[in-house]
Specification:
By secondary structure, this protein is of the alpha/beta class. The protein contains 15 helices and twelve strands. Helix 1 packs antiparallel against helix 3, helix 4 packs parallel to helix 5 and helix 4 packs across helix 9. The protein is globular. It binds pyridoxal-5'-phosphate.
Length: 392
């Protein structure tokens, strides 16, 4: 057998090293603590010399199994799986940013992350500046070594703006800034930022990685050196992944490649059809040539994903009627699961924000965010078309 690297679809199912004996499926080690033969062995293990697990808040075999798989998929040196996407971000920043050091963040980020930065992290360990999604790389380049860490998200929620990953990675490297990307919308099938020079890649594994809307989980990947700081912080912060959730995550990842391929093709099909419909004012989807950063998306993504936003030619009441009439697209927050979801940002993630500010973010009260699932594409299109019929 050649030593050619395994492709993502193989890594999803079997990881880098296939099972050679024992159970075909990694067992669930539902234990908080591990037993040692004698004190010397215990001491060596506590010091990390044996690779043996000591206590599940530090490491667990079921979680390690899924960490190795994700690490191979991202092309990184080390991956840590924690109890949520939020725990991943908190562990990374609290592990790496200290005593009033500055963080630069793009302004279009997940609402929970925004609140974590403003309400907690900026009170205890960091100063934060926000810049427009288009200005992240230039701001870094002009800042000298002002920033310890740079955080950004691409594609963004909910309007699927695209940031040039390589440009940010280069700017961060040239200024000695640690770069951290929230790659949740892309998944490791559609983009692999570490291979473009980004230092740390995190996911809300609740979304595409888990893929079945049945777990909350987070991952963070990068070099051994940076990850050792992140792991130390995660261990103390205690956002520990439960072994049973790790088992479900591993089970989800086995089908990640086929699921994402279907998410990609279903979403492209819907985006093309919706963009030709006069009742739809705008379709935000990076796979459409009309998308403002389509060329960047084409350069850095292997597929354009299952997320899109559509702005309807109606008001908030009409938009609500549209969502209420859908039968296959379920009305729920979250994303990346096998089932299609529709939600109105103005009434959920962006509730309470006035129309003018919404417009500045590229959304309005008639924007609907769609997480396109893996159902039949004609069924999905029929569902949306029936919803549009309710508007007239
Ligand atoms: C959901 C989400 C998060 C938060 O992850 P949790 O698993 O809910 O803690 C962070 N970033 C993005 C882009 C998300 O969609």
């Amino acid at each position: 057998m050649s030593d050619r690297k395994r492709k993502p679809a193989t890594l999803c199912v079997q990881g880098e090293n296939s099972q050679t004996s024992g159970p075909a499926v990694a067992p669930i080690v539902q234990a908080s603590t591990f037993v040692f033969e004698n004190q010397q062995q215990m001491l060596d293990s506590v010091q990390g010399k044996t690779g043996k697990d000591v206590y599940t808040r530090w490491s667990n075999p079921t979680t390690k199994n899924v960490e190795e798989k994700l690490n191979a998929l991202e092309g990184t040196e080390d991956t840590h799986v924690v109890a949520s996407g939020m725990a991943a971000i908190a562990s990374a920043i609290m592990g790496l940013v200290k005593n009033g050091e500055r963080v630069l963040s793009s302004d279009s980020i997940y609402g929970g992350t925004f609140n974590l930065f403003n309400k907690i992290l900026s009170q205890i360990c960091m100063e934060i500046d926000y810049v427009d999604t288009d200005a992240v790389a230039d701001t870094l380049e002009d800042s000298g070594s002002k920033y310890k860490l740079c955080f950004f998200e691409t594609p963004t929620n909910p309007t699927l703006k695209i940031i040039d990953i390589k440009k940010v990675a280069d700017a961060a490297q040239s200024t000695g800034t640690i770069s951290l990307i929230d790659s949740t919308f892309g998944s490791p099938i559609n983009q692999r930022p570490y291979t473009l020079g980004i230092d740390l890649v995190m996911h809300s594994a609740t979304k595409y990685l888990g893929g079945h809307s049945d777990i909350i989980a987070g991952t963070i990947s990068g070099s051994k050196e940076l990850m050792s700081e992140v792991r130390s912080a995660a261990k103390l912060l205690g956002g520990t992944m439960d072994p049973f959730a790790s088992f479900l995550l591993d089970r989800g990842i086995k089908t990640l490649e086929v699921r994402v391929a279907k998410h990609n093709s279903n979403a492209s099909y819907l985006a093309e059809n919706l963009s030709r419909d006069s009742r739809v004012r705008e379709v935000h989807y990076p796979g459409l040539p009309s998308h403002p950063q389509h060329d960047i998306a084409k350069k850095q993504m292997y597929g354009f994903g299952g997320m899109m936003a559509v702005t309807l030619d109606t008001d908030l009441a009409g938009t609500s009627r549209f969502v209420d009439s859908l039968k296959i697209f379920l009305n729920a927050v979250s994303l990346g699961g096998v089932e299609s979801l529709a939600s109105i940002p103005a009434l959920t993630t962006h509730y309470g924000i006035d129309e003018k500010s919404l417009n500045e973010m590229g959304i309005s009260s008639s924007t609907v965010r769609l997480s396109v699932g893996i159902e039949d594409q004609e069924d999905l299109l029929d569902d949306l078309m029936a919803g549009l019929d309710v508007l007239s």
